[in-house]
Amino acid sequence: DDEVHLRNLANDLRVGHRVHFLGSVDHDLLPLILSASDAMVLPSAREGLANAWVEAIACGTPVVTADVGGAREIITGPGAGILVERTVEDVAAGMEHMLAARMKQQVVAAYADRFSWQQHAADLAAYYERLTGGA
Question: Class assignment of domain 37-132?
Fold first, then answer.
């Protein structure tokens, strides 16, 4: 079981008291949990455009992730997070970088504005306007 292995690893590294394994979490609690986090680390080997990245950034939590899939569409500036190679050293360095940067939540959250329903509605309205020639 991965969780048992990771718990043992955290304890062996003497950081078990600082690592929380939450298991399955009610979706309504995610904004609270993400907002309380210093960073979201998801160094996936493969990913499309992960909703988890957008959700974290919308909550003001920067993301540390591998440069895969749609990561570059989400991590578009230093406030949104950092793209790293998928190695232990690079992920650790990315985490240290985000912790040292201490980005303000409002700055991070601004990177998610373009994924809001309001922005999607405005983009769709503009598309229809172009499609119909403004008629």
Answer: alpha beta
